[in-house]
Amino acid sequence: MKNIASLTILSMLLISHHAVAQNTTLSTEASAAAHSPATVPVPKAEMTEAEVRKVDVAASKITLRHGEIKNLGMPPMTMVFQVKDPAFLSQVKAGDRVNFTADKIKGAYTVLSIEVIQ
Question: Which of 1, 35, 53, 77 has CB atoms 3.0–4.6 Å from 63's, for a disulfide?
Answer without folding.
Answer: 53
